Amino acid sequence: MNTPTSLKVDLINDCNERCSFCPYYGAEGRVINEGLRLIPKTVLDLPLLTRLFEDVQGVVRRIKFSGQGEASLHPQFREIIALAHSMGFDLKLITNGTTLKRNAADVQAHVRDVSVSIHGVGEVHDQIVGLRGAFDKAMTGLDLLREGEGALEEVRMVFVITATNLDQISSIMALSKEKGIPVIFYLDFLPGLHAPMPLDRFRQTIEEIRSAGFTVSPNLPVEELARFMSPGSYVLQPHDCDHVEKELEIDSNGDVYVCRSEIMGNLHQESMRSIIEGTTRRRFLTVIEQETHSECGLDKKLCDRCCYQHPLLK
Ligand code: SF4
Ligand code: SF4
């Protein structure tokens, strides 16, 4: 049986930002569309997480805290990362950085790899994420993570390129150089839903990013990237997907799934080991294996611009 080595854990389905491109809290996001008040707020509690960590200890190596909310808003965030670290897991955090001022020391002590979302400079970032003061908080947090005896080495900014923040890219590259903090540029995962990208300007911007020595993800020739940002579905690697075997995702309500699978089980009802070995997971892995070996490859609609095909997000 293919056993996952990584878990992506949504500690909480809530966020203090409203990033314009966010698939959950953005203008076209699922949470907003379904009605913010209709989706109950859920958090994974410490007893459940303790059982989970004990269950997968020695099998799963890495835990990523990210997903459909801002993990650090969980009321026991610090206890959770301390527990997971003490049990030997390699921790990765993707955060909007707004809580780092109060959490930086704990993050330094327990998390190895931190990505902080920055999508513009100053008020432009604040406007994109819908929260005044967000940029200053995130920058303070980034500084704190890199200070003192526990200074983290794996800290970076992540910037999502959309049609509305192309003019911010040169400033972000300058900021990155000034502060010595790397930045990775990702493409908008849902370009079809957002303002159309001016493709000539986009191509020119990608060339500028690369000639300045920065990374664009996915790392493809510029014409392929232009195709990615154009209407129509796009599967990066139609005949290859090992993500489904290597990782499982846990919703803040306890549901376990991976990418476009159905729910494989719920941690409030059964153990992770039993879900890993269960028939729903096995069936899904078989479907994906068949698709990758078929002539057309992975389903174009369901795997459209899948973020797990970006090597940097794996
Ligand atoms: S910080 Fe993340 S979860 Fe929150 S709105 Fe932005 S993209 Fe969505
Ligand atoms: S959505 Fe498709 S490409 Fe992405 S992880 Fe799932 S099967 Fe793989």
Main sheet specs: 10 strands, mixed
Low-pLDDT regions? none
Provide the spatial order of strands within the biggest beta sheet. Answer: 7-6-5-4-3-2-1-8-9-10
Number of helices: 12
* Content-based structural category: alpha/beta
The percent of residues in helical segments reads 25-40%
How large, in whole angstroms, is the Cα Rg?
19 Å
Strand content: 5-15%
Quick recap:
This protein is α/β, with parallel strands linked by helices. The chain is 35% helix and 14% strand. It is built from 12 helices and 10 strands.
Map the helices and strands.
Elements: E1 6-9, H1 30-34, H2 46-56, E2 62-65, H3 77-86, E3 90-95, H4 100-110, E4 113-117, H5 123-129, H6 134-145, E5 154-161, H7 169-179, E6 183-187, H8 199-211, E7 215-217, H9 222-228, H10 243-246, E8 247-250, E9 255-257, E10 265-266, H11 272-276, H12 279-293
Parallel strand pairs: 1-2, 1-8, 2-3, 3-4, 4-5, 5-6, 6-7
Antiparallel strand pairs: 8-9, 9-10
The protein binds iron/sulfur cluster (2 copies).
The site of one iron/sulfur cluster has 11 residues, from helix 10.
